[in-house]
Specification:
With 316 residues, the protein is α+β, with helices and mostly antiparallel strands. It folds into two domains: 248 residues, Hotdog Thioesterase (Thiol Ester Dehydrase, Chain A), CATH 3.10.129.10; 54 residues. 28% of the residues lie in helices and 23% in strands. A six-stranded antiparallel beta sheet has the order 1-3-4-5-2-7, with helices on one face. The C terminus is likely disordered.
Length: 316
């Protein structure tokens, strides 16, 4: 059966439920993998953001796996026939802590299925909404939207777009060396059998990538781990990320933290506007008029940059 013969939208609304217990060993193992000191994780220890991926592991029988190491298509996820499957991004709401010792339940729902045509051919995006509840609570501790992209087989003339250099001047940054061992350990911790992360012959000869692919969830975890290292008392309320292009194990990469220019400009503008208004009786009318024009200009920049970021985030 061909892709166009399947009504993939029929899967929208399907649900499945999984249960697990937050045990301490995976917490200690991921701490070691991320180069944190390995310490005991007694009951009540809160999980760092995104470490819930250590639980609800995809336990499929060996005979149920496809040639790429994933479970064969069908079942809960729609049977998309495009051969390459990758993590495209995610959005998260961290509403209350998940702790070691908690009994947790994850309810997953197919939120959307959309077919598109991109630069490399046919694409299918599947969005799954996960709600994780702890110890029988009615309200979820975590809400996650997981975006999956299915891509057509790689063409011989297909070339990965060159990476866009990150801007300089990051307030926080950390260099990561994505070697085979790091990728293998994360695959093992998340019981991820996808061969693009550890099988160099498969990833280069079958899928046509130049090297092992760094897991999308690992990249997201490293981003929030940067926050944890530099602001250990910070509480993350929401987080979103989008996998723009694959990252390979061919060279080191850096995770960085910047203050978006629209936030910085808006903060300065509001502060100066407040001071200007407070001193209005003593302000020269020409100065006030010039400031009003500058304020409108900077506000326009903020709106424009926000619009561009929204378009980039939602562009396929």
């Amino acid at each position: 059966m061909q892709l166009e013969d399947i009504d993939l939208t029929a899967w929208i609304g399907r649900t499945e439920t999984a249960t697990d217990t937050v045990t301490p060993t995976p917490v200690r193992a991921l701490s070691a993998t991320l180069d944190h000191p390995v310490a005991p994780a007694p009951a009540g220890t809160p999980l760092p953001p995104l470490w819930h991926w250590l639980y609800f592991l995809p336990v499929h029988a060996q005979s149920e796996l496809g040639p790429d190491g994933h479970a064969r298509r069908g079942g809960f996820l729609p049977p998309v026939e495009l051969p390459r499957r990758m993590w495209a991004g995610g959005r998260f709401e961290f509403r209350s802590p998940i702790r070691v010792g908690d009994e947790i339940v994850r309810t997953s729902t197919i939120d959307n299925v959309a077919s598109k045509v991109g630069r490399t051919g046919a694409l299918v995006f599947v969005t799954v909404r996960h709600e994780v509840r702890s110890n029988g609570a009615q309200d979820p501790a975590l809400v996650e939207f997981h975006d999956i992209v299915y891509r057509a087989e790689r063409r011989p003339d297909e070339v990965e777009p060159p990476p866009t250099p990150a801007p300089s001047g990051a307030s926080w940054q950390r260099e990561i060396v994505p070697d085979d061992v790091l990728l293998f350990r994360y695959s093992a911790l998340t019981f991820n059998g996808h061969r693009i992360h550890y099988d160099r012959r498969y990833v280069t000869e079958v899928e046509g990538y130049p090297g092992l692919v760094v897991h999308g969830p690992l990249l997201a975890t490293l981003l929030l781990d940067l926050v944890r290292r530099n602001a250990p008392d910070a509480e993350v309320a929401t987080f979103r990320f989008r996998a723009v292009r694959p990252t390979f194990d061919l060279h080191p990469f850096r995770v960085k933290r910047f203050m978006p220019i629209n936030i910085a400009v808006t903060t300065i503008w509001l502060l100066c506007s407040f001071l200007m208004v407070m001193d209005y009786p003593n302000t020269n009318p020409w100065t006030f008029g010039l400031w009003s024009l500058m304020s409108a200009y900077f506000l326009g920049i903020c709106i424009w940059r926000t619009a561009l970021e929204w378009i980039e985030t939602h562009r396929s």
